[in-house]
Amino acid sequence: MSTERRRARRQPTKLWRAPVIRTQRVTPRMARITVGGPQIDDFVGAGTDENVMLYLYEPGADLPEPLTLETARAAMSRVRPYMRSYTIRRHDPVANEIDFDFVLHGDHGPASRWAAYAQPGDEVIFVGPSPAYRPDPAADWHLLIGDETALPAIDAIMRELPGATIKAFVEIENADEQQDLDVTWVDRGELVKVIEAAGFPAGKPAVWAAGERQVMQDVRETLVRRGVERGSVRPATYWRMGHAGS
Which Pfam families would you find in this protein's record (predicted)? Predict the structure, then answer.
């Protein structure tokens, strides 16, 4: 089995402007923002942990017209957005819809603040998409690990693996944050301990992991101690404790 994280071929990078068509509070701390319409007709999704970069401009910002990736970049010296990377939870090319899930943590980040108050008709500007993780078809089983910020990717990866043997562990704040997914829900601070004691299937796993930096480092060392090849465990850092994020 390859020890490198497999990626789909990169799609052409482009800037999209699309309206919010609905919002939903999935859990007390997670909001789902659905954008759609003909503006995203040509968006090509690759599934799994594919992400885009949200461009969050201040209200009333003097944006260049037409707003394209090139004109947005050229204007950054005078009008610079907050830029945050978000995984696509769901892309429906038939309905022309894209779902983004936001972990809400008050007004401590521009994306969280925007998502908490988003309404249908608001405009979302985003750039991408990124290449997506390609689960190794030769793996004996698949191990997915993360926290709330990794849930969109974990859900998307699981949908790409029908019939596969999957063990998924997701750390959350409390039971109210559980969603209708076939994963092992883990209380905050217990992720490493749970993984250390978990029963694993036989064979070599394909590992995908993402979350808080130190937790992911500890997860990696735990998996290596359990016999997983070090080169196959390359967690992504989605955020760092004590640092303002989204």
Answer: FAD_binding_9, SIP
